[in-house]
Here is the input.
Amino acid sequence: MAFEPTDDSYVRGYWYHRPAESFPPPPHFEISSSFSDRTLCLAGVPGCPPISKYKERKIIAGWAEILPSLASVEMLWVAPKVSQRLFDAIGVMPNLVGLHIEHSSIKTIVSNSFSNLRFLHLGSSPGLLDLEGLAQCTSLEWLETENLKRITDFSLLSRLTSLVGLGINGGMWTTQRIDSLAPLEALQQLRFLSITNARVTDQSLRSLHNLEHLQTLQRALWWPDSEIRDLLEANPRLATPT
Here is the structure.
């Protein structure tokens, strides 16, 4: 399986489902240190046979013991809520290049973790306190976040100059607050940007005018018509689906 972004990625986002390519692969619940596939999807409890909530918690807790030893795994999806302990364990997986987390209870991202990571979807993580650890993941090419409600200043993302895809999104019921898009002006390779269910305090898209590779902007309807008009004049090739 090739993990490089496709043409569709720059329209729909990197993590869109591709069943014909097993992206994501069939889900697992119980895993062992002998797991040898390149991709792994950890999902919830199988429907049959039923297990107790206690055993479910024990198995999920056990993932943190097993994952750091899985040298074969390059792409990982995790559907149940990811604890800080499990997140830290994923961070030291030796060959991980892609990670999709549905939601988490993390508060920090440990510095110097995720050293090889290229593609990250950090789903709803309202407890995350800062972006310092994330900004050190300089190998990132695609980053999507959701509902980082404690964070409004995204200026540290300006360090991630290899990004071709970025999402700073709100959740289904929660609007993401963003002080300004000005830091994104440093991301000159950016081709895809999503700011859905997000409110930008300064209500300005001017920082995107000079992103000459930007192909797609996913955004909410609230943006002033004048901002959209000026952006499209600066970049007539840009698509802005709503």
